[in-house]
Amino acid sequence: LNAGNEILTLKENQRNPPEFDKTLPISMEVKKNEQINLDIKASSEYALNVIELEALYLPPGATFDAQTKVFRWLVGSTADHVRIQAVDTTYN
Fold this sequence. Notes:
The structure is a single chain. It contains 1 helix and 7 strands. A hairpin with a 4-residue loop joins β5 and β6 (70-74). It has one helix at residues 2-13; strands spanning 19-20, 35-39, 42-43, 51-57, 62-65, 70-74, 83-88. The mean pLDDT is 86. The protein is elongated and about 60 Å long.
């Protein structure tokens, strides 16, 4: 019974995944040799949940520090994209 109740609670809570800070740009126009620095933030409506960020794809020359949550990129010669995911480690 306890396991079933826990599964139902997890299922209910997973309906509200972490959200990225709405001030983060969805897209940016950048120029070659421009330095981009972004503080990546995500949060959960559940105050006690721990949100971890992970870079799934970074353009050449870019770095993402999961501890400081800072994305840095010295723009190269081609346009590219970035993919960073937010994971709620409390509810997987």
